[in-house]
Amino acid sequence: MTADSQWLTFLALMLPFAAAALAPFLTKLLRHNAAWVLAIAPALMFLHFSGFLDPVSEGRALAGGYAWIPSLDVDFSWYLDGLSVTFALLITGIGTLIVLYSGGYLNGHEHQGRFFSFILMFMGSMLGLVVADSFLTLFVFWELTSITSFLLIGFDHSRSGSRRAALQALIVTGMGGLSLLAGLLVIWGATGASSLSALLATGDALREAPLYLAALLLILGGAFTKSAQFPFHFWLPNAMEAPTPVSAYLHSATMVKAGVYLVMRLNPVLGETVAWETILPVFGGTTLIVGTFLAVRQTDLKLMLAYTTVASLGLLVMLTGFGSHKAVEAAALYLVAHSLFKGALFMVAGLVDHETGTRDVTRLGGLRSAMPVTFAAAVLAACSMGGLPLFFGFLAKEEIYAALGFASGWSAALTLVAIVGNGLMFAIGFAVALKPFLGAPVETPKHAHEGPVLLWLGPLVLGGLGLIAALISTVSHRLISSPMSSAIAGEPVTVTISTVPHIGMPLALSLVTVGFGVAAFRMLGRLRGVMASVLNAIGWGPDKGFDQALAATTKLSFGVTRIIQSGRLDYYMTATFIALAAALLIPMIAFGEFPAAPAFPAMPFYEWIVLLIGVIGVGAVIYARDRLTAIVSLGIQGFAVALLFMLLGAPDLSFTQFMVETLSVVILALVMTRLRLSPTDHRPTSEKIGDVLVAGTCGAALGLMLLRVTQVPFNAELSEFFAANSRVIAHGRNIVNVIIVDFRGMDTLGEIAVVMITGLAILALVRIRSAKPAKAGQES
Amino acid sequence: MRTLIFRTIAPYLTSLMVLFSIFVLLRGHNDPGGGFIGGLIAASAFAIYGIACGVSPVRRALYFHPMAISGFGLLLAALAGWMSLFFEVPFLTGLWTTVSILGLPVDLSTVLFFDIGVYLVVVGAITSIALALEEREHG
Amino acid sequence: MEVALSVFVGIFFAVAIYLMLSKHIIRILLGVSIFGNAVNLTIFTVGRVVREVPPIIPEALQTPDTITANPLPQALILTAIVISFSFFAFLLVLAFRTYQELGTDDTDGMRVAEPEGEPLPPLGY
């Protein structure tokens, strides 16, 4: 990659964030028409990334980036091959249409600017995620998509449903993010590769690493939560609380595919093992079946689509894990097809909701004449979703059946799962696309008419693309499908499937699927009733489990807090001092570091007297029966310490201590005479014994520690430096004062600031008046 | 506490103590003493005055609010540190010069101003605390 | 001398901690004050003890000619004394105001921030 194009790519990656910063101001200025201006950003990025199609289709991968934290070998780097370029184009292309669609959908919303900002931030994060090369870049953008998704789901934060959905999505995908980080670190440790490009070059190293299974499970923990695989699927339908542009963009076309992207990306190094080819199809297949069954139950257009999205993601994971080149091709084709048709259908659902005021499929009908353009877009998208010939979805489905086949019992089972899933998705796709438009017109909360161009442009373009991409399949295979499949497979793969049906097993299976789908479509009402009664009978799901887990966590932490933060100061103090004694004594006992038995100290008698006075002073504080005795005793021990300083060559300390003790006694006397408090002890004897034990142990431990410390040789280097330089450099003969005001002046500056702040705090405390209503009443 | 003798002596005692505190402050660099000790002595002086004659005469005598004195001290100490900027040496590096006052050579330094700053902070803050508590006592 | 000081400091700590374990705020305050002295003495002792020679350079010399007391712990303790005094004053006033507001000097009765029988936090969203 040349320096110029490297710089441009960096700009392209940063552009959405810049646009996000501008969005609120532009929206204030231009209102909903800001969409036209803001859409220029993703459109430019789309153009930039489409420039990579040619080199990538020749089988080259382009890497670039800048050093981020060089000391830790962490780069901000990107890696562009068939997979990431396809994703980048989907993100920027659909992103352009979504920005326009949001302009119409949230027209007049008071926070439209904020919405633009969030969605552009998400775009930047998602783009960064799919082009990231270094693990750290990947992880950072992965988490950014979780956070922006949280903001977007909770956009309508005044509703508790939104808040719950946002929190749920954040917790589920956030836990997955942690799992991903752990997985990446395991891989980093196992292979020494800190970036995807380096990892892809290691070949079999990871598969043969002893930590392979740990790495695999951790990575899948991230991928499965993000891509809503069973049993983590529940957050995705709840995320439909978000405005429809978000559902169309994040929760069908792009973000939820991040997990699929990850397994596709790592397929060359993690794949082709028994664990991989078991776990992925099992979870993917289960998700496909569960998703479609739950979709049948729904009547809300968005929820029907959401569950089929869950199902589609399961299908993608299943195909990626199947492990043949054909399956990889099928996954690539289906991923692109799904992004196009599902994005379109979501936008249609939002459009219908916007124009009629409801998205309950049982309360809609006969809109075809009122909303002809929408109807056309819906039918185009549904045909692709149903896999009808001439549409891109058809190519995908043919490839799926060709890949799975009936070669073994395992693949036959998966084929069966695929047929059931696809058939039900066919039924639901057409239910969404046809039910609201055909039949007799039904009275809706709002009078229906065609939406503005901003709203129908997106679904129409995406629906149309599903047709065009299939018609020019040779071009789309050369530019998109083949490079993408090659990147997933890790070796060159050429996709050849064309839109002309030819007789064979896949076509037969397609026909079976369509037949099953048509039957299911006709019986949808009855199926819905059956599913509803089955689900009612079960009565529990991961969604409910999430609530229970969260409530249980809250209760548990409340209980724990209640025990360790009892609100009683004496408990806290006791715990602290027991910990102190343990911290001092346990190492001494464990390492045999007790001080040597000291000789009896030889000291002049006056020093003994001073020490004795101190001990008598503290003893008297304990036994004082009245206030004045306690204060005076406190003064006595303080003066004893001051005398000690004086005897031991510290006149400065001595003076200071004298002054401070005097002032302490004065202010204590001032306060105590006002407080009618007796300083005597009211503790029951049993408590006293415990306290004496704790205090005695602490005192002994601290004394022993001090004794032990004074028995090791003294390093006087620092003190000697001060003694040698005090006069030479700092022109002062009192070394203590020189240290305070010169050598350690910065400390002193901080310390006098502290003294001043306590002065201010005391002043505030003294002056503050009680805010109690009773007292206020007295004053008035 | 407010006996006639105490009340009569207190102003003189206070003046003497303040004078002594300044002496202690200035000799601090070469002999025991310094800003902290000097500040504490002066603060006790004002506290004694307050106990003897009430708080308002002390406030009148100080003229400035004690916290203002404290704040000025902190500012002075910080400015003494900033002086080093003009000589392109690190913050708080001591700078020395000798000036002649009335024919006597006097050593001046940023360190001296720093110590005066410390003195003022301690005087201001502790006096403020003591006066606030005494005010409650009598008010 | 260090031996005697170690025992002395140990006694100070024990008394201070015993007082701080009390429920009565005035006793806790007295304990804090003694605790401060004990900590200062610890720092002082750790810097080793030299009798009666303050760390002051004689007028005629550039560096001290005899072994003097260690100046470094003295500098640390000097500021520590002043700061612990200002904090002691702050605690005293805090205790005083608390007594005025709550009418108790028993720490068990001071439950404004952590009231007894607090209800479960909301479980919704």
UniProtKB/TrEMBL annotation, chain A:
Residues 614-676 form the MrpA C-terminal/MbhD domain. It is a multi-pass membrane protein. It comes from the Bacteria. Signal peptide: none annotated. The keyword Cell membrane applies. Residues 132-415 form the NADH:quinone oxidoreductase/Mrp antiporter transmembrane domain. The chain crosses the membrane at residues 6-27, 34-53, 78-101, 113-132, 167-191, 211-236, 278-296, 303-325, 331-352, 373-394, 400-433, 453-475, 503-521, 571-591, 603-623, 630-649, 655-677, 689-709, 748-766. Residues 689-769 form the MrpA C-terminal/MbhE domain. Keywords: Antiport, Cell membrane, Ion transport, Membrane, Transmembrane, Transmembrane helix, Transport. GO terms for molecular function: antiporter activity. GO terms for biological process: monoatomic ion transport. Residues 69-116 form the NADH-Ubiquinone oxidoreductase (complex I) chain 5 N-terminal domain. Its main location: membrane. It is found in: Cell membrane; Membrane. One of its GO terms (cellular component) is plasma membrane. This is Monovalent cation/H+ antiporter subunit A. It comes from Nitratireductor pacificus pht-3B.
UniProtKB/TrEMBL annotation, chain B:
It is found in: Cell membrane. The chain crosses the membrane at residues 12-29, 35-55, 67-91, 111-133. Residues 5-127 form the Na+/H+ antiporter MnhB subunit-related protein domain. Coiled coil: none annotated. It is a multi-pass membrane protein. InterPro entries: CPA3_antiporter_subunitB, MnhB. It comes from the Bacteria. One of its GO terms (cellular component) is plasma membrane. Its main location: membrane. Pfam families: MnhB. Signal peptide: none annotated. Keywords: Cell membrane, Membrane, Transmembrane, Transmembrane helix. NCBIfam families: PRK12509.1, PRK12573.1. Belongs to the CPA3 antiporters (TC 2.A.63) subunit B family. This is Monovalent cation/H+ antiporter subunit B. The lineage of its organism: Bacteria, Pseudomonadati, Pseudomonadota, Alphaproteobacteria, Hyphomicrobiales.
UniProtKB/TrEMBL annotation, chain C:
GO terms for cellular component: plasma membrane. InterPro entries: CPA3_antiporter_subunitC (IPR050601), NUOK/Mnh_C1-like (IPR039428). The keyword Transmembrane applies. The keyword Oxidoreductase does not apply. It is found in: Cell membrane. Its main location: membrane. Keywords: Cell membrane, Membrane, Transmembrane, Transmembrane helix. The chain crosses the membrane at residues 6-21, 28-50, 75-96. Gene3D superfamilies: 1.10.287.3510. It is a multi-pass membrane protein. Belongs to the CPA3 antiporters (TC 2.A.63) subunit C family. PANTHER family: ANTIPORTER SUBUNIT MNHC2-RELATED (PTHR34583:SF2). This is Monovalent cation/H+ antiporter subunit C. It comes from Nitratireductor pacificus pht-3B. The lineage of its organism: Bacteria, Pseudomonadati, Pseudomonadota, Alphaproteobacteria, Hyphomicrobiales.
